[in-house]
Amino acid sequence: MRAPATSANLGSGFDVFGAALERPADIVRVERAEETTIEMSGAGSEFIPEDPAKNTAGAVAEALDAPARIKIDKGVRPASGLGSSAASAAGAALALNELYDRGLSRSELVPIAAEGEALVSGEAHQDNVAPALLGGFTIVAEDGVTQVDSSVPLVVCLPDIVVSTRDARRVVPESTSVENMVDTVGRAATLTVGMHREDPAMVGRGMEDNVVTPARAKLIDGYDAVREAALDAGATGVTVSGAGPGVIAACYESDRSEIAGAMLDAFDDVDVDSRAYQTRIGDGPTVYR
């Protein structure tokens, strides 16, 4: 099972918007067993507990009553803002659903995978697990998830900085002005239409946010310089990916390489190592049999 990285929030859609990324991704393998065991490898795996009671995939196995030997090769680094825990949870949910023939749809698996997310953030958020399972651009609401197929080009730059989801949530303002609320609604609507039209310019305008992003940006060394560099190189919009520290830029495909280089250079100028993914909004998980 190949489970994709995701980017949540996308600026104006805090706890609502999410997008599956073409790359990077986790590889999740499962086999039936009498009790669940977990084996981790790959990027940052040494920081992820293998105790099923403390692992997102283990929580999913329990929720599905599907004990298994679960092996996860991490392509999505933990504490990256790219849905690392969601990739593991979504991959395990889909794989175990098939292994045990539970017959649940991908939409029905979203709240189950979100139970794994609760181990990381303290709440069963669906903004990362929804796109990790459904692909494309997703909108999470109390009455369900709306999914839009899209393939808008993106650049994600991941600095060698750790920002935990819990820390990132602590800095979110508890209130805002009516003016900010109105602006955010307008931006979110613009982004949604942009995704439907696959219009990078509209998506970029819709990424602007005056409430959550400024607070989280302070946790990322060099964020302002990286954002400016990306915009100067042709990005149509730039924001914090999820809880950070990943920084995501919407763009036209012809500008991706130059934008990636500019973001890497800007982090380097503040003595922060980083890597860039030239990617796009992609499909959900791929099942290998």
Automatic annotation (TrEMBL):
Its EC number is 2.7.1.39. Keywords: Amino-acid biosynthesis, ATP-binding, Cytoplasm, Kinase, Nucleotide-binding, Threonine biosynthesis, Transferase. The keyword Coiled coil does not apply. InterPro entries: GHMP_kinase_C_dom (IPR013750), GHMP_kinase_C_sf (IPR036554), GHMP_kinase_N_dom (IPR006204), Homoserine_kinase (IPR000870), Ribosomal_Su5_D2-typ_SF (IPR020568), Ribsml_uS5_D2-typ_fold_subgr (IPR014721). Residues 56-136 form the GHMP kinase N-terminal domain. GO terms for molecular function: ATP binding; homoserine kinase activity. Pfam families: GHMP_kinases_C, GHMP_kinases_N. Pathway: Amino-acid biosynthesis; L-threonine biosynthesis; L-threonine from L-aspartate: step 4/5. ATP binds at R77, P78, A79, S80, G81, L82, G83, S84, S85, A86, A87. GO terms for biological process: threonine biosynthetic process. It is an enzyme of class 2 (transferase). One of its GO terms (cellular component) is cytoplasm. It catalyses: L-homoserine + ATP = O-phospho-L-homoserine + ADP + H(+). It is found in: Cytoplasm. Residues 195-267 form the GHMP kinase C-terminal domain. PANTHER family: HOMOSERINE KINASE, HOMOSERINE/4-DIPHOSPHOCYTIDYL-2-C-METHYL-D-ERYTHRITOL KINASE. HAMAP family: Homoser_kinase. Catalyzes the ATP-dependent phosphorylation of L-homoserine to L-homoserine phosphate. Belongs to the GHMP kinase family. Homoserine kinase subfamily. This is Homoserine kinase. It comes from Natranaeroarchaeum sulfidigenes.
